[in-house]
Amino acid sequence: MAKKDYTKPKKRLFRRRQKQLNRSFAGNSLLFFIMFICGIFMVLPLVMIVNNALKPLDELYQFPPKIFVRNPTLENFSDLFVLMNDSWVPFSRYILNTIIITGGGMVGHVIVASLAAYPLAKHRFPGKNILFSMVVLSMMFSWTVTQIPQYLIISALHINNTYAALILPAWSFGMGLYLMKQFMEQLPDSLMESARLDGANEWQIFWKIVMPNVKPAWLTLAIFQFQQMWGNTGSLFLRDEELKPLQFSLQQITAGGVARAGAAAAVTFIIAAVPITFFLICQSNVLETMTTSGMKD
Amino acid sequence: MDTQEMTVSQEALDIAKKQATLSYQMKRNKASYFMLAPYFILFFFFTVLPVLMSVCLSFTHFNMLEMPTFVGWKNYIKLFLEDDIFMISLKNTLLFAVITGPISYMLCLLFAWIINEFKGKLRAFLTLIFYAPSICGNAYLVWNLILTGDRYGYLNGILLKLDIINEAKLWMQTEKYVLPVLIVVQLWLSLGTGFLSFIAGLQTVDKSLYEAAALDGVKNRWQELWYVTLPAMKPQLMFGAVMQITQSFAVADISINLAGNPSVNYAGATVVTHLLDYGSTRFEMGYASAIATVLFLLMVGTNKLVQKVLGRVGE
């Protein structure tokens, strides 16, 4: 008798588990409905950017403005390429600058911030709490007023008008360290303890155990940092035209006024498309790692 | 006599012990300090030092041309006693933060949680759709088209067609509409940093916890959310809260671009628009630094409060 009672709920659980744990059809439908309505609102700017990029000039100036394009054309992009060829510095130079600044700022930040986040999350040492609260508090100070002192410091360090003026400050942004620390905190201590018993040093533990296990975190951080660096025109710290990033030259093109409205629409498209591509690559990787590695204990 | 000697030597022993442990601790954790060094050296130069300099500047008169001159508390006194616009902007900012902060936070969590139900490429795509306003740079400028004050603005057009209003409204030029509209736009923009960190956080929740919870009698997805998911992602919740606070207290760009700076009767003025007004238009850096310092203290206080509330999640 008792045995029968024991197996009954277990069997039901097994059946439900095969569908999906704790999910009802009504609940699913409600949530998907909410998603659909909100999704339309959220995707609006994307739709407009794509449509504007494909609009011929007369449609861009049509009044009242329409969202959807009627006679799509790639004219805007060919206009843009003509303008690019006219630029003061060869356009490939801007692209190279952007790769160095965005890549360097992003990769460096992810590594440096993660490296500092690991001891803050998992080691005990004097000064730990002070250091961490300094980082969190720093995010609450308005950057508008710190820009001037920052400029003075960068000049004093003689890295003004170099890539380093943009890259080095980016390595020490507060958000990245905070994000990484929060994720590393969740890792079970036993994971690191067993590696230590196997004779791994802290450096090895960091690269071989910690980082692979917080891959969703650093991929997300990479997205944030990419966006941040990609949007930087560098006009405050870079004087030489040969050092300026793509963002700067593209914004110069859009500043050209009415005649360049078509090219400007293409620019807006490119400025949005690059981080979106990067975003999609990172996001789909966040998924794959988690489904393939059964890391948690 | 004997006992006194005992206590003295005991005290000395304690101090020696303490010192020994501190230096021993420092030495023992050499690896930790090495790992911290690259970040914190840069952090000191590019963040700590500028912030300290700004705080010092807040006690000076500094117009960026002459050397700063020390004025004591004058900037702060002017800020709270004479600057009426600061009071308006402070009121707007608090209103903004109280409304958009918690709602944005809930929205981030809700959408991240729903999206987490999807699998594969569809999930990445849905994340993109909801993150789109944050990734497209100045995407909020589309609201200018929607809110245009004549019959051709999208919002006016729709409302006229549905006979809800009978003449076009000047949305961003009418005092009573400015703040509500800005709040709506801010909410629309709110699925940013916090949202993505929640998405990533949900990925790291141990799947076996759900099975264990089902055995323990968790019956539906709401219970599962409260008793399993949220406690398991507390670190991300804390992170999201800080990001939300920094965002909702620092609202400025949307106000400047949609309502203008200054806006009609300062209806859209926030602490940061006020700060930008002094910092980048009037070049009164001392005064702007004082505003930044007040804003900073406001955020720190809010953060303390919020972290306390979040500590109770899942209880």
Descriptors for this entry?
A: 297 residues; mainly alpha; MetI-like fold; 2 domains; 14 helices; 0% strand; globular; disordered N terminus; disordered C terminus; B: 315 residues
Tell me, briefly, the overall form of chain B: flat
Uncertain regions spanning at least 5 consecutive residues of chain A: 1-19, 291-297
Proportion of residues in β-strands of chain B = under 5%
Helix content of chain A: over 70%
Number-wise, the strands of chain B total 2
Please report the total strand number of chain A as a whole number: 0
User: How many domains of chain A?
Assistant: 2
Biggest sheet details of chain A:
none
How many H/I helical runs of chain A? 14
Q: Spans of chain B of 5+ residues with little confidence (pLDDT < 50)?
A: none
- Write down the overall geometry of chain A: globular
* CATH class assignment of the largest domain in chain B: Mainly Alpha
Order of strands, widest sheet of chain B: 1-2
CATH architecture of the largest domain in chain B: Orthogonal Bundle
CATH topology of the largest domain in chain B: MetI-like fold
Fraction in helix of chain B: over 70%
How many separate helices of chain B? 15
Question: How would you portray this structure in words?
Answer:
The model of chain A is unreliable at 1-19 and 291-297 (pLDDT under 50). Chain A folds into two domains: 27-73, no CATH class; 81-292, MetI-like fold (Orthogonal Bundle). The radius of gyration of chain A is 25 Å and the shape is globular. With 297 residues, chain A is mostly helical. Chain A has 14 helices and no strands. Chain B has two domains: 1-57, no CATH class; 79-310, MetI-like (MetI-like fold). In chain B, strands 1-2 form a two-stranded antiparallel sheet. Chain B starts with a helix and ends in a 5-residue tail after the last helix. The chains are: A mainly alpha (297), B mainly alpha (315). At the A-B interface, α1, α2, α5, α6 and α7 of A face α1, α2, α4, α5 and α9 of B.
